[in-house]
Every structure is written in structure tokens, then in C-alpha cells.
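To: structure subgroup
Subject: Chain for Friday's discussion

All,

I'm putting the inputs and outputs inline so they're searchable in the archive.
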Amino acid sequence: MNNAQIVTVFNNMANLMQIRGDNPRKVQTYRRITRILDSLEDDIIYLYERHKLTSITGIGTSTAEKIGEIIETGKSTYFEELKASLPPGVLDLMDISGIGASTAARLYQELNIDSLESLKEALDNHKLRELRGMGKKTEENIRRGLEALLNYKQYKLLGDILPEIELLVTRLEKLDVVSRISIVGDLRRKTETVKEVNLLAECDDTEALKDYISHTDPGVSINVTESGQFDRDMLFLTGSEKHVESIKPLIEEKALESDWTHGKTESEIYNTLGMSFIPPELREGRGEIQAAMMGELPQLVNLNDIKGDLHVHSNWSDGYDTIESMAQTARNRDYEYIAICDHSLSSRIANGLDVERILNKMISLREISQEITDIRILMGSEVDILKTGGMDYPDEILEKLDVVVASIHSGFSDSKSKMTRRIIRAIENKYVDIIAHPTGRLLGKREPYKVDIDAVIDAAAENNTILEINAYPERLDLKDEHVFKAREKGVKLAINTDAHSTKDLDLMIYGIYTARRGWLECKDVINTLSFADLARLLKIKL
């Protein structure tokens, strides 16, 4: 628990009070408390443990007790009571891009909109235009945000559903009636979102298997195959429609007998068709058939090729864990290096570091590096790209950093041309090493901002700037199609977790899946390099 997380709880309390129409003075009190806590330079836990919270102007006994409960238990009873006092659908409104607490409050209080369904009905009837200050443009922006949210609600994030289904398959493999079982379809290809989960099974009692699955939480579709044809069906049920349609003419051309696949593995089936085995992530109909026939498929990057993570956070900004904890956990993964990239000043909600704090952090990190010598701890920062395209720190700070990760956290509504110029200017900055989550999307929550991604990729190629594949399951940004384009232009990429806790370091695998879907090899990914080679590439002083 750190300052930023405690600030977030109080900010959310104020939001909920405002939505339900509490006394404005009370709402403002909680807004003021949020600002006070956000402005503190001292660690809130430090102050709490030394009984110094009430010595801060504006923090009374009641607030100190609420802070103490959050620190001690990780949650707030009052916050939970506030959530329970509103229809659960009201909170969903704030998942829509462009709807904050003020707008949600007006929708709820003035139009009785308390769910996504009632919002859609109000939009269809142009009810929002009846509210003062909400014209056609605002209504259309909210409609687009709602459509994006509803579209994604049909899908599950890869990072949410894959662990659950892998656990289910492990349990099903132990059933006596099951001979073989596998994930197929989109989930096996590791698409970023999954609409339907498909399994393929060879079993003695289909009804018993389906009955077992019906009593589990995940919703899955089960396909049952006959003996000797498991790999054939796995191949055809895994590939995208375009991939499978590309294979069918090859089968017809060879006039293969009906039972030619009996007992053959997937690899053998592909070989019989005159091509090398195609990894599931590539089976999208993007030229993989031709590449496989010519023996030109990439040697895809794997998780065990990764030697470090170049974008993680600590409790100096909005992370949960200390630099020491992050570094030791990374070393336990056999990493050679880790870059601690806490936020810059403009990211106030993320407890961004001003110049004085980042200089103090540099001193602290050097001291930690003297104690933890079996991994290189790099001094980095996730530096905001300002609306002008300039950086949130002056050059004299940027040049002191081992790794500069530049990203956008504001001005998401900028025009396409303005956003593109903004990012390209950052790419052209000689101190910027990596552009983080380059399109700014949050799957199911926020559409990518308007940006000419081809122009960004071209600029990265021209300036030898690295683009990030952010492995966080809600981001996976760059997406696979953009990764493929970057690879074709010779742009190097970094697969980073954007970890805010030691547990988040496990998210690297989702970035790997995206990289593989983008046809990346080790040579395309900078954090497959040894530290010595990485240091030469990024001009890190050894």
C-alpha cells in the first residue's frame, strides 16, 4: 500500500458521494482530503505508524481512522458501504470513456440512468440533449464510448480467461473418461480477447464429460473427436477461418485419401501438405502458409528468451512494492536486469516524482544496487509526453537516466494529426529510448487515441527508437498487427510488463504471445539481449 493507492480510495469515495447526491460540502471535503494526501511528500504509512496523520492540517481523527483501516486491511468499510448504497449498474457508467463522476451524477440524478441498458435507451431517445451543457457532440462521444464498452463486454481478456481454462483442462485431464483434451480456437491462438472458449476432447463418455463441465464456472464449448483424429481436428479447430480456407485447396490438390490424417500429429499433417509446422499464434491467414511452404517461418521468441524487464514501477510512485522486492523477484526469474521506471511529475494521480524526488531516488537506487549485486537495477522513468510533444523532465534529468520510457497520459482527445506529431516529437528526442503503450488503448475501457500508427512506426525506424509491447492484459499495446508492421520496418521492440507489483512480473507471458502473433524473433526484441549488449544499445554507462 502506498500514497497513490490511498489517494485513489479517497478519490473514489468522493466520486460515489457525488453520484448519489450527497451534500456537496461533504463531497468537497473528501475532494480536499484527496488533494491533501496527494500533495504529501512523506510516506502516509510512515506518518500513520508514528501517529502523525492528525498533525496535518485538514486531516481529522475520523479521516485518520479510515486511512488506518486501509493500511491495516487493504480496504475501507466506508468505501464498501458507499458502493452498496447505489445500484451496481451506476458504477458501470464510469467505465465508459468520457464519463467521470460529474457526468455520471447528472445522468443518475437528472435522468435516472442507473445502468448501461438505461443509458443506451436514453441515447436512442436523445435524452442526454435535454441536460444543460450536453449537446449533440457530447451525446455522440458518450455513444461511441458505450458501443466500445458493450462490444468488449462480449469478450473476455486473454489474461483473465487463459489461466482459468488452463486450470480446468488440467482437472479434465485427470478424469478417467478423458484420453486427450486441448484448448483450441482463438484461445489457443492467444488472441487478445476471446468470445468463445473451445476445447477438443477424445473421451469414452461424452455425456459424463459435458456434465462435469456444466458444473464448472467457465463457459466452454466442447468438441469431441474420434480415435486417431485428435491432431487433425486440433489443427482445423485452431486455425482462423482464413488459415483453414488456405489449407483446403492444398488438400484437394494432393487428392489425399479420406483417412490420410489418421494417427498423424499436427506437425506431420503440415509436413504432408508440403510445409513446416505452423505455431498456433501464426495461424491467422497473414502469409504463414506461403512462408511455411518456403521454409521461411520465423523462429518465434519465447518466454525463456527474456533477460529483463525495462518498464516496472515501485512504491516511489504508484507501485505496491519496493525497489528491492521488484529486483529480487526479477532475479528469481533469472533476469539479468530490471529498469525501475516510476512516473514523472505530471502523473499526479500516480504519485509522479518531481525533480527533487527523482534525484533522491537516484541516490537510493545506487545504494540498493550496492546491496543487490546479482541483477543490474537500472534507473529509469516513465516520463509523460506533454501536449507540446516535449518531455516532463528537463534534459539534464533525462540524460542522467539509464532508460527513458516516454508515454502519454493526458490529452487523449487530441486530433489524429496533433497526437501523431506529439508522439513523433518524443521519438525524435535523443534521450527517449522507448515509447510505452503507443496507442493508449485499454481493452474494454478505452479506445486507442487517434494516431497515425504507420507514421509513428516510420519515425521509430528513422530514429532508432524502440516501441513497447506492453504485456498488461488490458493493454497488449502495441497490438499484434502493429507489431508485424514494426518488424517489417526494422523497428526494435521491448516486451515490458508495466508491473506495479512483484506479481505483475508474471504478466510477461502475455506480451510474449502478442510478440509471437506479430512474428517476432529474439533479434527483434531488445530485452532478449544480455546486459552487456543492452548497455551498448542504450548507451548505458557500465
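Points worth raising on Friday:
The longest helix spans residues 3-20.
The first strand starts at residue 156 and ends at 157.

D.
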